[in-house]
């Protein structure tokens, strides 16, 4: 938190700063200004959370300085300092929506109570702004997931955006996997809650494939601190699971969205690096032979989790025939750690031959981890969607409701249904939207959007147009025109 004290009296500044240092926490920075002009400059540069401003200052008075600072730092709370209990000053303060009005000399107990109120207001305001950021971000990412087009009218400003995408290597059908996912989610939420006073917003969401993402918007200079904390989360979770993380840093949300998609597309690169860390996604693609090797490792792990022995043996066979030079660019020890986390047995990393031999020796272990396939739950989920498509449904919410992890649900929903979860949900919503548009011509497009689960009519229209080829209003007009023409032909 940053506090600015603006007063031309050096002793007042010193006294107030001393009292504040006894009241506020150690991570608070207190800066000073000795006139109104400096106060405006400090607000423009530091965007303080709280400003104590004297009424009578040289170069620029406190009232006009506050009015100017309001435009430069809208979220700042202002407290007026004055030795004059003049009602006219009080009226001006009210018109500027200052947080309080305190008389000199300042009473320490009064200041303590004031700071409690200001900090609570700050926390409430930041939480409200962060909630809006999260809702808007999820809405925007879902639009790009479903419509596949850039519509970035809502977030045109440039900022520092960070996207962290997490991957868990663990026995996919075990309770350990679900426990690790829940712990990861809880730790990320705790991390986000620590940002209230750091000029930073965060949102937690799952991709259309059920992969956990955390997005940060940084209005300060917190990147290195964030990176350290995320790496600590990855390192401190279950010893029996490996949590890896790649991140991208972009100047706008659409570039960040594409960056997160790229992380998921290239997630096999995690096998190249030490696990339990947050790493920047490499900007350049690896050599083709390296990518093929890593993709075969990924195929092998998926085959093991799916208890598909034929696919498993094919993957091992492909690895056995890789060019010897490929291994010079790969650390088999890192790969073996990931494999051990999924299979539950150590794999030799001495050389390629012993590596593949040990993979063949432990393939029978896949049957020990085989549980009941959640086919019945997929049918239940479809039924739930058909009854609740108008609600705020997400893959994360459905996974929690049916006791599955999001990426596991995504994978097996696609496997059983032949369509991705988000596409199935969209199809159900659009089918019902078409029914409403046809049956009731009096319902507005905005109301139709809400009735089928979309908060934004603009997003609904984009997704409807992608699905049907027409925007909702065009679809309704075309149906009415065609129905009228058909009716005329029948009448003749």
From TrEMBL:
PROSITE patterns found in the cross-reference section: HTH_ARAC_FAMILY_2, RESPONSE_REGULATORY
Domain Response regulatory per the UniProt entry, residue ranges: 2-119
InterPro entries reported in the protein's UniProt record: CheY-like_superfamily, Homeodomain-like_sf, HptR, HTH_AraC, Sig_transdc_resp-reg_receiver
UniProt function note: May play the central regulatory role in sporulation. It may be an element of the effector pathway responsible for the activation of sporulation genes in response to nutritional stress. Spo0A may act in concert with spo0H (a sigma factor) to control the expression of some genes that are critical to the sporulation process.
SMART domains named in the record: HTH_ARAC, REC
Keyword Hydrolase part of the UniProt annotation: no
Domain HTH araC/xylS-type: 379-478
Protein name: Stage 0 sporulation protein A homolog
Top-rank taxon: Bacteria
CDD domains in the record: REC_YesN-like (cd17536)
Keyword field contains Isomerase: no
PANTHER family: HISTIDINE KINASE-RELATED, TRANSCRIPTIONAL REGULATORY PROTEIN HPTR
Organism: Caproiciproducens galactitolivorans
Lineage: Bacteria, Bacillati, Bacillota, Clostridia, Eubacteriales
Record's keyword terms, sorted: Cytoplasm, DNA-binding, Phosphoprotein, Transcription, Transcription regulation, Two-component regulatory system
Subcellular localization(s) per the UniProt record: Cytoplasm
Location of 4-aspartylphosphate modifications: 54
């Amino acid at each position: 938190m940053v506090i600015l004290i603006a007063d031309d009296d050096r002793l007042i500044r010193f006294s107030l700063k001393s009292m504040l240092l006894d009241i506020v926490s150690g991570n608070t920075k207190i800066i000073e200004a000795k006139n109104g002009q400096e106060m405006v400059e400090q607000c423009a540069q530091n965007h303080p959370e709280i400003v104590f401003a004297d009424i009578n200052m040289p170069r620029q008075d406190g009232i006009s300085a506050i009015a100017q600072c309001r435009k430069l730092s809208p979220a700042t709370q202002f407290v007026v300092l004055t030795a004059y209990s003049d009602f006219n000053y009080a009226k001006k303060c009210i018109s500027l929506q200052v947080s309080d009005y305190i008389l000199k000399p300042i009473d320490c107990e009064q200041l303590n109570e004031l700071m409690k109120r200001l900090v609570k207001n700050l926390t409430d305001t930041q939480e409200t702004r962060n909630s809006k950021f999260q809702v808007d971000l999820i809405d925007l990412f879902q639009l790009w997931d479903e419509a596949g087009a850039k519509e970035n009218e809502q977030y045109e400003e440039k900022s520092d955006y960070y996207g962290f995408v997490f991957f868990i290597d663990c026995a996919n059908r075990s309770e350990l996997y679900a426990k690790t996912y829940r712990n990861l989610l809880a730790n990320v939420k705790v991390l986000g809650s620590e940002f209230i006073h750091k000029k930073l917003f965060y949102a937690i969401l799952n991709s259309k494939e059920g992969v956990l993402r955390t997005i940060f918007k940084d209005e300060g200079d917190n990147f290195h601190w964030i990176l350290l904390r995320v790496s600590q989360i990855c390192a401190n979770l279950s010893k029996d699971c490996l949590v890896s993380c790649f991140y991208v840093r972009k100047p706008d949300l659409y570039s960040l969205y594409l960056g997160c998609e790229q992380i998921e597309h290239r997630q096999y690169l995690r096998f190249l690096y030490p696990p339990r860390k947050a790493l920047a996604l490499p900007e350049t693609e690896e050599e083709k032979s390296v990518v093929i090797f890593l993709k075969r490792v990924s195929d092998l792990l998926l085959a093991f989790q799916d208890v598909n022995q034929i696919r498993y043996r094919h993957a091992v066979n492909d690895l056995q025939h890789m060019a010897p030079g490929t291994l010079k660019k790969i650390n088999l020890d890192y790969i073996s750690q990931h494999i051990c986390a999924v299979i539950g047995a150590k794999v030799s990393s001495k050389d390629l031959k012993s590596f593949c031999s040990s993979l063949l020796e432990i393939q029978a272990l896949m049957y020990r981890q085989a549980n009941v396939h959640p086919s019945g739950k997929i049918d239940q989920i479809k039924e739930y969607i058909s009854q609740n498509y108008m609600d705020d449904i997400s893959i994360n919410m459905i996974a929690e409701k049916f006791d599955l992890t999001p990426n596991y649900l995504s994978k097996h929903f696609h496997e059983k249904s032949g369509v991705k979860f988000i596409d199935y949900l969209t199809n159900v919503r659009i089918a019902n939207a078409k029914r409403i548009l046809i049956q009731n011509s009096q319902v507005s497009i905005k109301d139709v959007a809400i009735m089928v689960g979309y908060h934004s009519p603009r997003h609904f229209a984009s997704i409807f147009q992608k699905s049907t080829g027409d925007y909702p209003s065009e679809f309704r007009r075309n149906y009415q025109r065609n129905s009228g023409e058909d009716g005329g032909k029948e009448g003749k």
